[in-house]
Inverse folding.
């Protein structure tokens, strides 16, 4: 998963505290992360690798009095073979209402097949010609 994907959640509880004061929001960050739940639980899926793995409290930022932004970190170990559906539930600990709110609609993460390119081998008489003077005996790739 690439880094830098973020999404806001709201409404939050009251105005932020004075600078330097430890707030209830700081305590609610782990609850907010726990509320990002995938419907399925493959071994290398969202719940194991993102929610419970790479996503940390510092990725949950209070953007304003009513918005939290969650920035998803790059997670090289996240590897799914089928689409995952993620439900966001904002916990009561992060809301003035003191009751959880389940977001709608959900969002999905699609499985993408890896792609690659096969390059010619330099083995047994192969080589490259026209690339910085490298040439093999018996032919090879001409550039």
């Amino acid at each position: 998963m690439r880094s830098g994907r973020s999404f806001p959640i709201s409404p939050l509880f009251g105005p932020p505290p004075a600078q330097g004061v430890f707030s209830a929001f700081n305590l609610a960050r782990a609850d907010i992360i726990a509320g990002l739940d995938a419907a399925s639980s493959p071994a290398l899926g969202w719940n194991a690798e993102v929610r419970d793995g790479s996503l940390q409290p510092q990725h949950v930022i209070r953007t304003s009095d009513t918005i939290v932004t969650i920035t998803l970190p790059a997670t090289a170990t996240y590897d799914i073979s089928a689409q995952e559906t993620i439900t966001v539930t904002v916990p009561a600990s992060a809301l003035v209402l003191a009751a959880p709110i389940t977001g709608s609609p959900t969002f999905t993460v699609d499985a993408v097949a890896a792609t690659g390119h096969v390059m010619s081998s330099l083995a047994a008489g192969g080589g490259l010609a026209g690339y910085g003077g490298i040439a093999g005996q018996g032919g090879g790739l001409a550039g």
In short: The chain is about 15% helix and 20% strand. The helical segments are 24-34, 46-54. The two ends are 35 Å apart (CA to CA). The longest strand covers residues 84-90.
